[in-house]
């Protein structure tokens, strides 16, 4: 359905197609888990050189594993711990080129080398994060972090009815 993401200057154009596909895929569906499941599957299909794509959802002041594509993962992550917990605490997208250089990195999958995490924010409150891992160092650019933040913004109406 999609060509894998390449860095030939058309990244923005490819993401615009992804946003349209997301809207079409989730149109008229009101179940949050179903929509996050399809969003993670869509991203997993769209992105190349990744080994985990999924969501952690805020429950009782910690991040709990939600819908994902990939190997089994850490189930609970404290706010402020690891890349996911840092994104939740700071409310800022984290683009990490080498996870082994990130203080307090949580190694759920030893193959992961780089990571991007986008907080999901509603009314200034973090309700979860989108987490994407790659087995390659420096897989994600700052531009891609911005484009994935926009992906989460497009997803919000489909998971916060």
TrEMBL record:
A Pfam entry, by short name: GAF
Entry-linked InterPro entries: FRMsr_CS (IPR000614), GAF (IPR003018), GAF-like_dom_sf (IPR029016), Phosphatase_reg/MetRdx (IPR051330)
Domain GAF: residue ranges: 31-160
Alphabetical list of PROSITE patterns matching this protein: UPF0067
Coiled coil feature spans: none
Family classification: Belongs to the free Met sulfoxide reductase family.
Name this protein carries in UniProt: GAF domain-containing protein
